[in-house]
């Protein structure tokens, strides 16, 4: 299995004695989600007869850029924003929750693993499991 890092920085996986660095290959573009931001305001009454306008940015995620088509044997490492947008089984993102290692400035140094946001068809899983059970009983 090949892992292609499409983030702007190296990703370090450190889990127990395991420590692997996934470098970004030179010349490989960074996968990004294009955002369209629409600025709006809503009125909020802070006291009787006194209203203020609160700025609210409406963000619409539109299109993912620089993400290759799926290839056999290749996992793509991207940001969580890209991974949640595409939900593909070949796209993974570092787990940057409380389990990751951070430096004194709060920047991620290493992660314990990766996550995918790919949707799984449970009927396919159940059908496959039932076929396995049926074939083992035959």
Features:
138 residues; alpha/beta; four-stranded mixed β-sheet; two-stranded antiparallel sheet; extended
Report how far the terminal alpha carbons are from each other: 34 Å
Considering DSSP H and I runs of 4 or more, what fraction of the residues is helical?
10-25%
Residue-averaged pLDDT, rounded?
87
Q: Rg, please?
A: 21 Å
Strand order of the largest sheet: 1-6-7-10
Residue windows where pLDDT falls under 50 for at least 5 positions:
none
Number of helices, where a helix is a run of at least 4 consecutive DSSP H or I residues:
2
- Largest sheet data: 4 strands, mixed
Quick one: overall form? extended
Descriptive account of the structure:
The chain is an alpha/beta fold and 138 residues long. The protein folds into 2 domains: 94 residues, no CATH class; 32 residues, no CATH class. Helices cover 17% and strands 44% of the residues. The protein contains 2 helices and 10 strands. The model has no long low-confidence stretch (mean pLDDT 87).
Topology at a glance:
Elements: E1 2-5, E2 11-15, E3 18-22, E4 32-47, E5 50-65, E6 74-77, H1 80-86, E7 91-94, E8 101-102, E9 108-110, E10 114-115, H2 122-137
Parallel strand pairs: 1-6, 6-7
Antiparallel strand pairs: 2-3, 4-5, 7-10, 8-9
Short overview:
The protein has 138 residues and is an alpha/beta fold. It is built from two helices and ten strands.
